Amino acid sequence: MDFESHLNQIATAAHERLTEQVTELYGETTPDHWGWALRRPGRWVDAYVAMLRSVWEVFHPHWQRAQPLLDREIVRVGTASVRGALDAVLADINPRWRFRDESLLIPDRHPAHFALDGRRLVLTPTVSGVGASIFDPDMADMLWLGYPVPNLWRTWQEQRPGRRQDPLALVLGPMRATLLRHAGSGLSMSQLACLLHCAPSVVTYHCTSLVDAGLLYRERRGRQTHVRRTERGDALLDLLSGA
Known about the structure:
By secondary structure, the protein is of the alpha+beta class. It contains nine helices and seven strands. It has helices at 3-26, 35-39, 41-82, 86-91, 167-172, 174-182, 189-196, 200-212, 231-241; strands at 98-100, 103-105, 120-126, 134-136, 142-148, 216-221, 224-229. The two termini are 44 Å apart.
């Protein structure tokens, strides 16, 4: 379905069901900010659709550039599902999510527990920031999770004519490539966070992936944790630095 048809579908459904859906969601205690919309549902829906159309005009070029990444991610997740390796996908799908003991932990202001109970798990890559997460656990036939498509930064990166790309960054991503290069000096996690200008939790997330891949190992020195390259990490660095 193209976007314009989708907008028309939203407009038709919203005109018919806006009041009903708000009542279903809030019951008799409808928040004040919905008052204007319920008094003039037609005008509210028209304004909402016009806003979506304006946003899409700006966002559409970014969506087009991200399409190859979205297609590749759909194939990756589909292949993992067929091969019974979906656990590995869930373990690395979002830096804010945690997967353990067959449970996916997603930070939320209103914590709750949801079980599949025979429903399908639907994973949808989105064009969004790296920390974004969208989910709908209340559907009868599926549990829907939206997550940022990997390597989205590449769609915004300008390719300078004649500029040679970093092979290690192309394989690991720029953050993990930088971590692997600097791990030779045995820096602490806090030092790496300062070096990369990011939160310590982000460094921990990427280092854990590199440790799991056998490229780094951790050392405990007092109250500090340091990381170093393994022989495999040294070999990969030598191979791709000379590529």
